[in-house]
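This week, think about what follows.
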Amino acid sequence: MPTEDELLGNVDALLEQVAQGGLPPPAERRRLREAAGLSQAQVAKTLDTRREAVGNWEAGRTAPRPPQRAAYAKLLEKLAECFPVPDDEAPGESVYGDKLFWLSVVIQRKYAQICAEFDLTSSQATLLCAVRDEPRQMADLAASLGMTKNALSQLVDRTARRELVGRASSAQDRRVVMLSATPTGKVLAEALYAEVIKRLPEIARNLDADGQRDFERVATALVDTSDLSSPTSNQPVTP
């Protein structure tokens, strides 16, 4: 039978596990530190870690590990008591919107890196992938990509000068302009698309297996329930 000290030790260990899992969202961690007038360097010194580590915790890029995690959780808990969220703020909505904004940045940055390796801008790459399988009407493309017809025309002109795409009148209606990939463009588009679908999931590489599955499920649901046949904004997209 365990002794009283052993049981108390088990309780301490259990409380340690609870503390390790009770961190507020990254944006709230930063808010609490700034509300207290503390610098990242001060927090890092207190927790015996690097300033960059604290910055990564606040950005959500990494998570603190024991023994710093329990101490960090306690610090944030006490700061939250001293600096509660004002009643007129909606932290859930603001944090959620902030994370969606930065998620779009992460995706666009990764996509741009891959496109640059093929000597393409992001817009050129998207256009090329959109017509890699079959010709598309210019009007439909403009709607799908959320671009004005003039902006799309400029993008097509620049891409066509590289002999990657070409315009042609529709066989059914000569007034309808179709856009298709050239043989060279099709080969490039296939290689680019294969690389994109292979490497874009790398943005979730820091998530555990369950987190990656959840991310895949949410991303799939978002795309499947989105209307990609019409523009999401009346604002022109810079080609």
